[in-house]
Specification:
about 140 residues, 6-stranded mixed sheet, globular, alpha+beta, 3-stranded antiparallel sheet
Length: about 140
């Protein structure tokens, strides 16, 4: 995986930890966290997204239940821009995963929705007026 060498990883007892650049703390390096950290490096490094406009595990209420978004990125005007649902590399990206991300997006209403397991990623542009979406071939430029 491309950004693996850029991750700050250490061993503490029997746990592998990774330093989260957004949350500024050491986190247990679970497979999903690995994907999240790789994507954050991609967004900040390659895509030049502003790190101050990125939140990780932000709370959201969906159907009266508390949930957490994996990555939520805001545009320059602090409007929700891109919601990312991360899965472990061994988890296939199915319709159910996309539906989960879409449910989390219900109260947020981002224009772009992404799912990724680190091996493959899908990005969709949401058309709220038409109640439809279309898949994109690339991650959108940050606004």
């Amino acid at each position: 995986m491309r950004f693996s060498s850029q991750l700050n990883v250490k061993q503490e007892g029997n746990k592998r930890l990774v330093f989260g650049n957004i949350r500024k703390k050491w986190l247990v390096l679970q497979p999903e966290e690995f994907v999240r950290q790789l994507l954050l490096h991609f967004f900040i490094g390659d895509m030049r997204y502003n790190r101050n406009r990125i939140t990780v595990e932000r709370g959201v209420t969906v159907n009266s239940e508390s949930r957490r978004t994996d990555i939520l990125i805001f545009d320059a005007d602090m409007r929700p821009f891109l919601l990312v649902e991360c899965k472990a590399p061994k988890i296939p990206l199915t319709t159910d995963v996309f539906r989960q991300a879409a449910n989390y997006n219900g109260p947020i209403k981002v224009p772009y929705l992404m799912i990724s397991n680190g091996r493959e990623s899908y990005v969709a542009e949401i058309d709220y007026a038409a109640k439809d979406y279309r898949f994109l071939t690339a991650v959108p430029e940050w606004l």
